[in-house]
Amino acid sequence: MVKRSVILIFSVFIVISSLFAQDMKYSVPDKIKGKTVFTKILGKHNGYFFVVRYDKKATQNFLFEKYNSELKVVRNHEFNIESGTSVEDIRFMNGQLYFFYSEYEKQDKLHKLYCDVYDESFNQVDKENLIATTSVVPSNSKSFKIEYDLIYNQIVILYAESIVNDVIKFNILVLDDILTTLNSAHTRLNYSKEFSIKNIQLFNGQFTALVYEKTSGLLKGNKSNIDFFYYDVGNQNKIIRKLDFDSVKFENIAYRYDIVNKAYLFSGFYSSDNKEQIIGMGMYRYFVFNDSSFLKLTPFSDEMIVSISGKYDASGMLNYYPQGIVLRDDGGYVLISEYYSIQKEMQNDYYALNNTYVKYYYHYSDIMLVSVNADGQIDWNRIIRKDQNSMNDDGYYSSFSYATVANKIVILFNDFSRSKWNLLYHVIDPAGNVDFEVLVNGNTFNGSFIPRQAQQVGLFEIMVPALDQKRGFTLAKITIK
To answer: What is the model's pLDDT at position 3?
Structure first.
């Protein structure tokens, strides 16, 4: 037993018992042309479920669908987007569907962002509404980043407006649900190295994001310094906080606004400056209203590494990536992370100059849950074992989804250990007890679920898309009683 300042994380303890009762409903399968289809479950409104399906061909096909409670399609709308038009985002908010897309106009040399709006019957109520223009195109992402505040029914759009002497001027727009500009702000970011902006969020007019600046040096590889970027658009107040502290810095991190503690909560894994591996888990709270903060770091002991990583050594901890934070009503939270890696393999032969083949191997493994109290102390840690491997498919059927139902965390994923995959269902209660069962037996369902595209659409409802091998696309609704 290691004492000092180290907090032990206990290995997984799984209790098999009765879970919530579930009711499963399926939509009528629909034939699809391609081998894969991308699905975005948009949400629920007035008792109906809204879904968009699309492909990623040069000429993209989009299909909006409205389902009733019995998963029967009551209305749909299908159209194509020609090459040269980039779909930026699709979202359903306050009973309306927003379809954001951008086009490049050669004459003006400008990228223009438009939005078409549809009501819940897919009648077009706004067409080709010009939202923003820019002459700047990021090298590693889309021109426009869009996020939504579903509590206050607001939309935020971030885009680079100009670049002068390596200083990038950004514009932040906050719109209401009829696309009227509520606030706008200009801000400049100056980084000496390549950087990217990720995880943008909006809460009551407060824009936030993480800025990743790549570090130099062969040994550091693709590591990045992470900054927290806060901007109160209404009051034109900007704050940038570095997420590295003394001799440690966060490598993989998730964040969200903590409404209980009225602070921004960051949690993830950290390393030291002179070590190329994760050495612990940290919690950082930042209170904007008085510019104060609270930091708690928990080093990993050898026992922790064994309980968390199993067959992986400490270096393997770099492949654990936080996927989300679930807030507890006592001021604590649960950090949910997943182990995954991607390997690239070049294959050729004697005639390599004529034919070179590239294979991508996707490996999605264990899910880790860590429950932390309001003081940053770890209450419990649980590992849910899985082993999902695929090739050249972007991990289409791999990974997992999670939801919060009746004071518990629910996790869904495919079990790849069988030739016909089972859909597994895990439930974790506030004490860290883990129950599981086979939700759908692969021998009784002639197809495969796509858990990473699942979405919680109500307090007790989760929707999961699936592909039936013979009959096509189907939608499953899990009602937890």
So the answer is: 29
Among residues 204, 325, 158, 317, which one has the least CA distance to residue 254?
A: 325
d(CA 434, CA 124): 46
Which H or E run contains 58?
none
Of residues 51, 28, 26, the one with CA closest to residue 40: 51
pLDDT at position 307 is 73
Measured CA to CA, the distance from residue 193 to residue 198 in angstroms comes to 16
Q: Are 322 and 295 in contact (CB under 8 A)?
A: no
Question: Could you report how far apart the first and last alpha carbons of the chain are, in Å?
Answer: 42
Q: What is the pLDDT of residues 224-261, one digit of tens each?
A: 789 999 999 989 999 999 988 877 888 889 999 999 99
AA identity, residue 50:
F
* pLDDT band per the 50, 70, 90 thresholds, residue 101: very high
The answer to whether 33 and 453 are in contact (CB under 8 A) is no
CA neighbor of 211 nearest in space, from 173, 255, 247, 275: 255
Length of the chain in terms of residues written: 481
Of the candidates 433, 434, 395, 435, the residue with the CA atom closest to the CA atom of residue 416: 395
User: Pick from 154, 133, 130: which is nearest to 144 by CA?
Assistant: 133
> Do 7 and 380 contact (CB within 8 A), yes or no?
no
Whole-angstrom distance, CA of residue 209 vs CA of residue 418: 40
- CA–CA dist 301, 3 (Å, integer): 10
Cβ contacts of 217 within 8 Å, gap of 6 or more: none
Q: What is the CA radius of gyration of the chain?
A: 23
Beta strands 401-405 and 422-428: pairing type?
Answer: unpaired
pLDDT at 221: 46
DSSP string, 358-378: EEEEEEEEEEEEEEE-TTS-E
